[in-house]
Amino acid sequence: MNKKWWHSSVVYQVYPRSFMDSNDDGLGDIQGLISKLDYLEYLGIDVIWLCPVYESPDRDNGYDISDYYKIGQQAGTMEDFEELLKEANQRGIKIILDLVVNHTSDLHPWFIESRSSLDNPKRDYYIWRDNKGELPNDLEAIFSGSAWTLDEETDMYYFHLFTNNQPDLNWEHEDMRKDIYEMMNFWLDKGVAGFRMDVIDLIGKDVDQKITENGPKLHEYIKEMNEATFKGRDTLTVGETWGATVENAKLYSNPDNSELSMVFQFEHLGIDEIPNTDRWNLRPFEPRRLKRVMDHWQIELGNDGWNSLFWNNHDTPRIVSRWGNDKKYWKESAKLFGILLHFMKGTPYIYQGEEIGMINLDVESIKDVEDIQSRNMYYDYQAKGWSEERLMAAVNTKGRDSARRPMQWDASKNAGFTNVTPWLEVHPNYKVINVESQKGDKDSILELYRSMIQYRKQSELVVYGDYLAVSSSQDKVYAYKRTFDNEELIVITNISEEEVFETLDLSKYSNVIFQNYDDFKYSKEGFKLRPYEAVVLVTNSES
Ligand code: TEU
Question: Model pTM greater than 0.85?
Answer without folding.
Answer: yes
